[in-house]
């Protein structure tokens, strides 16, 4: 047999082993209620578009009997394909091969596909189902993760990076996702932690389930590590496809333009905002009144719900929306909502996605909990992110814009290009009740009827400040517009800002209040 024939024979046997492993993986993953690496990739990508690379790469580890272990694909499938015609680089770890753990060869397959994604200027999707650094490979697996983290960071703001958590993921298998732009989780399947229950039991002597420690709900609702929550893997893949349709391939391109659609006629702003300024409403209904086809892809829906962030289209073009949610904590800014909005604003700015800000909030949340949790440091993130952003910035004051909240929610002073207010807007240092109690304290306490005096002073203050006209007279509001004219004003602002250029002093980088 010639050398060439022997090589072909050798590699075709490896291919057969890999195919057999795929079949065995299917049985093992099905038992765990999970899809295989191949099924996952093929479900996300357009039919027949997946091209796999590096099938034959093998580990060179020798310790702990590794020299006798053949790990097909070294536990990770990598390649390229399309999502609704958008090219992407993709990898999926295979939990059935050494727990999807990351050795050096496994890591090198991932870093190679990451380098491709950056060079080709296309999004990277990583499907994580891994126990983290492969323990048997020691420092080599740590090196592998280090090289991935480095690339995640270098690629940040250059190409969109999407992480999908589809199994029990530990250590590096969650730190790499933390460095990416969007993290997807699936109920009951996704688990994320730095150290698993076994380690916690050994070190702390505490018994805790994986679900309690870092299940999909924990990271969607409490920690804020996850951006999208799904009930099933298939639902998760549909969410990924939708997200990819909204974002550009890289930071030098615009997101794909879609055919223009009008908002659905059953959404009317004046029916959504209650007459009484203390009555809550759902800001997402306002978004539906304004956006093409009333379609909104909400990000981090279940975390810090007092602020709403996500993508919509206006005249077919992608816009990032940030809106206070009066339905939750009256829409206040706090530690978590500032983190949530600040990061989203920076994503939009990095990828040239204009920002629309919808304002209705009483200010920053007061109290010892927030102060001790660092509301000064975290709250500053939103100020920083808006001030730093040079994409077109359009702000609409729907109702309350009080105090620090007025400034923080992309006011003129933080560089908004266009600020509109509805006639229902109230722009002041604080709400009429609080303001009257402070500035008319003496008159109220000395009055024969303090309650009547308080009412009168609240009314006086309301007449004077709880409207948009003082701010408009100062030039801080560009126009007070009727609700039915608002979409037209936003569309026009976006149209004339299409070639916006805003230069800043040269610097290596700023120092945001991380
Ligand atoms: C090698 C591993 C592994 C690992 C799991 N396996 N994790 N092999 N290295 N890190 C193997 C198991 O030996 C087992 O092999 C198979 O995968 C399935 O694992 P189980 O424990 O049976 O599965 P399960 O009960 O579902 O638990 C999954 C798990 C647990 C929670 C992930 O395996 C676990 O806690 N693993 C260790 C996690 C960890 O501490 N990783 C290192 C993190 S440090 P067999 O042959 O029996 O099927 C790190 C460095 C980066 O990642 C730090 C970031 C800054």
Write the layout of secondary structure elements.
Elements: H1 3-31, H2 37-44, E1 51-53, E2 76-83, E3 86-93, H3 104-120, E4 124-128, H4 139-155, E5 161-165, E6 168-170, H5 172-178, E7 182-186, E8 191-193, H6 197-204, H7 210-214, H8 216-222, E9 228-230, H9 233-246, H10 269-272, H11 283-290, E10 296-299, E11 307-314, E12 317-324, H12 335-350, E13 355-361, H13 368-373, H14 375-388, E14 393-402, H15 403-408, E15 418-421, E16 426-428, H16 432-439, H17 441-446, H18 450-465, H19 469-473, E17 479-480, H20 486-496
Parallel strand pairs: 3-4, 4-5, 5-7, 6-8, 7-9, 12-13, 13-14, 14-15, 14-16, 15-17
Antiparallel strand pairs: 1-2, 2-3, 10-11, 11-12
Helix pairs in contact: 3-4, 4-5, 12-14, 16-18
The protein binds hexanoyl-coenzyme A (HXC).
The site of hexanoyl-coenzyme A has 19 residues, from α4, β6, α5 and α6.
CATH superfamily of the largest domain: 2-enoyl-CoA Hydratase, Chain A, domain 1
Number of helices: 20
- Regarding CATH, which class of the largest domain? Alpha Beta
Structural class: alpha/beta
Tell me the number of strands: 17
CATH architecture of the largest domain: Alpha-Beta Complex
Ligand inventory reads: hexanoyl-coenzyme A
Shape by Cα distribution: elongated
How many structural domains in the coordinates?
Answer: 3
Average pLDDT for all residues: 95
How is the main sheet built?
Answer: 8 strands, mixed
Question: Whole-Å distance between the termini?
Answer: 63 Å
Radius of gyration of CA atoms, rounded to a whole number: 26 Å
What is the CATH topology assignment of the largest domain? Answer: 2-enoyl-CoA Hydratase, Chain A, domain 1
């Amino acid at each position: 047999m010639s050398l060439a024939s022997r090589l072909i024979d050798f590699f075709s046997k490896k291919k057969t082993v890999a195919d057999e492993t795929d079949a065995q993986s299917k049985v093992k993953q099905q038992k765990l209620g999970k899809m295989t690496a191949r099924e996952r990739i093929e479900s996300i990508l357009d039919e027949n578009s997946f091209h796999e690379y590096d099938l034959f790469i093998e580990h060179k580890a020798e310790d702990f009997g590794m020299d006798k272990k053949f790990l097909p694909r070294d536990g990770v499938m990598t390649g390229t394909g399309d999502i609704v015609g958008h090219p992407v680089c993709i990898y999926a770890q295979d939990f059935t091969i050494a727990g999807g753990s990351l050795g050096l060869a496994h890591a090198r397959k991932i870093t190679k596909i990451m380098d491709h994604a950056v060079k080709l200027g296309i999004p990277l999707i990583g499907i994580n189902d891994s126990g983290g650094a492969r323990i048997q490979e020691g420092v080599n697996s740590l090196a592998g993760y280090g090289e991935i983290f480095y690339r995640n960071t270098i690629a940040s703001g250059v190409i969109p990076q999407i992480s999908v958590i589809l199994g029990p993921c530990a250590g590096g298998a969650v730190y790499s996702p933390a460095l990416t732009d969007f993290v997807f989780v699936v109920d009951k399947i996704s688990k994320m932690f730095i150290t698993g229950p076994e380690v916690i039991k050994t070190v702390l002597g505490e018994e805790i389930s994986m679900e309690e420690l870092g299940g999909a709900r924990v990271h969607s609702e409490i920690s804020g590590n996850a951006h999208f929550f799904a009930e099933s893997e298939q639902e998760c893949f549909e969410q990924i496809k939708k997200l990819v349709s909204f974002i550009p391939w890289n930071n030098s391109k615009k997101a794909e333009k879609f055919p223009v659609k009008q908002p659905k006629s059953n959404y009317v702003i004046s029916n959504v905002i209650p007459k009484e300024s203390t009555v809550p409403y759902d800001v997402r209904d306002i978004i539906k009144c304004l956006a093409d086809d009333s379609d909104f892809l909400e990000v981090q829906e279940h975390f810090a719900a007092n602020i709403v962030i996500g993508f919509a289209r206006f005249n077919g073009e992608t816009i990032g929306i940030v809106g206070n949610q009066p339905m939750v904590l009256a829409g206040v800014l706090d530690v978590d909502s500032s983190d949530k909005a600040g990061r989203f604003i920076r994503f939009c700015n990095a990828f040239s996605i204009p920002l629309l800000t919808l304002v209705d909030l009483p200010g920053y949340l007061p109290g010892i909990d927030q102060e001790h949790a660092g509301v000064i440091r975290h709250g500053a993130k939103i100020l920083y992110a808006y001030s730093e952003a040079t994409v077109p910035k359009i702000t609409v004051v729907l109702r309350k814009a009080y105090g620090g909240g007025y400034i923080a929610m992309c006011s003129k002073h933080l560089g908004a290009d266009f600020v509109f207010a509805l006639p229902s807007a109230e722009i002041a240092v604080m709400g009429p009740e609080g303001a009257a109690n402070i500035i008319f304290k003496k008159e109220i306490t000395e009055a024969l009827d303090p309650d009547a005096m308080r009412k009168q002073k609240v009314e006086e203050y309301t007449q004077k400040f709880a409207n948009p006209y003082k701010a408009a007279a100062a030039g801080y509001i560009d126009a007070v517009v009727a609700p039915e004219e608002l979409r037209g004003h936003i569309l026009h602002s976006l149209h004339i800002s299409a070639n916006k250029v805003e230069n800043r002093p040269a610097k290596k980088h700023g120092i945001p209040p991380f």
